[in-house]
């Protein structure tokens, strides 16, 4: 095969984002899950981040962390030292016992050169000053960190203070009971993207995100990304429609099957 054709094939390889790390094989949002994602060939990892009471950023999905029947911790009402005592791995299996909640700095340290992280902000804009501080200390190069959020105000404030960092607005789709129409419509999404100065839109793999919908996003100069896909057929369909990345729980499996 000529060199030009080999380069073309490589460029067409899908960009795979490991959802909370390799979350089918290890406890989600933990260092083992992220390390495993890199081993499995992920192009990027995605993690969920909250701000603690003492102003630290931790990687955990839920605002309320439940430990057993009667014990729970609210992240924003807890200090980092308290949260570091929690075992977030045992529920996934005995081998993961004593796995702890990582800080964003610890997650950054796992990222290989040339790889990326999708930072999903699960709280409000108050997290941003600390986030910018951690990014400055991280050693990551321009373009390695991408901000994503369901909160349009987070995207707006982030782009206002750090316009060079990419940011994508996230949304699922819900059917309006009165009209039967799925919300948000593409017109509503475009208005949010314009108002927040987002670089793109990322949605759940849903029938509402069809070729017409995605083309409207792309034709208006925005990127389109999709989550969370574990099936080859679905991933292939969205890639062909223009998705620039596919977020998955099984990066190793999906990479292998799509390569075929």
Structure characterization notes:
The protein is α/β, with parallel strands linked by helices. It has a single domain, classed as Phosphatidylinositol (PI) phosphodiesterase (TIM Barrel), CATH 3.20.20.190. Helices cover 33% and strands 22% of the residues. It contains ten helices and 13 strands. The chain has helices spanning 3-11, 31-39, 80-83, 104-108, 128-138, 152-161, 186-196, 211-219, 232-241, 251-259; strands spanning 16-19, 44-51, 57-59, 64-67, 71-74, 116-121, 145-149, 167-171, 174-175, 182-183, 200-204, 223-227, 246-248. The strands form three sheets. Strands 1, 2, 3, 6, 7, 8, 11, 12 and 13 form a nine-stranded mixed sheet that branches. The model is unreliable at 1-11 (pLDDT under 50).
Give the tags.
disordered N terminus, TIM Barrel, about 260 residues, nine-stranded mixed sheet, alpha/beta, two-stranded antiparallel ribbon
Please name the fourth-level CATH homologous superfamily.
Phosphatidylinositol (PI) phosphodiesterase
The CATH topology: TIM Barrel
Shape: globular
Structural class: alpha/beta
- Secondary structure: number of strands: 13
Number of helices: 10
Largest sheet, in brief, is: 9 strands, mixed
Query: What would CATH call the class?
Result: Alpha Beta
| N- to C-terminal distance | 17 Å
What's the helix-strand series? HEHEEEEHHEHEHEEEHEHEHEH
